[in-house]
Amino acid sequence: MDVTRCMASVSDGFWVSQCSRKAKRDGYCGQHHPDAQDARVAKRNARWAEEDKIAALRSRQHERKQQLMDALADAMLERDLLPSALVRAWERWKEVADA
Ligand SMILES: [Zn+2]
């Protein structure tokens, strides 16, 4: 092992070899230093958490929109505000969509 080089092992998916970069701190290059690795993991986890939050929010918004549309449709049906032809066409469309 070349002690002037970073002590991390790197793999190209087939061979494992010593990192070719120069050791800068504690025997590691800037990329492989444990602090840098930890920071990258923390950053990635933070991004995933953020993406999960956005996905959950989108899913709630989606559900909320569906509920609103359902409520609107129910209200219009109850008040006979929808032309019967439209209701019939909608029922037919649902049959086709569910099939
Ligand atoms: Zn390295």
Notable traits:
single chain; 99 residues; mainly alpha; two-stranded antiparallel sheet; 2 helices; 2 strands; 6% strand; rod-shaped; binds zinc ion
**Which ligands accompany this protein?**
zinc ion
Tell me roughly what share of residues is in helical segments.
Answer: 55-70%
Strand percentage: 5-15%
Name the shape in a single word: rod-shaped
* Biggest beta sheet summary: 2 strands, antiparallel
Task: Count the beta strands.
Answer: 2
SSE pattern, N- to C-terminal: EEHH
- Determine the structural class based on helices, strands and strand pairing: mainly alpha
Q: Quote the distance from N terminus to C terminus.
A: 66 Å
Give the mean pLDDT. Answer: 93
Structure characterization notes:
There is one protein chain. The protein has a domain at 33-98. 61% of the residues lie in helices and 6% in strands. The protein has helices at 34-78, 84-98, and strands at 9-11, 16-18. It has a two-stranded antiparallel ribbon. The mean pLDDT is 93. The chain binds zinc ion. The site of zinc ion has 8 residues, from loops.
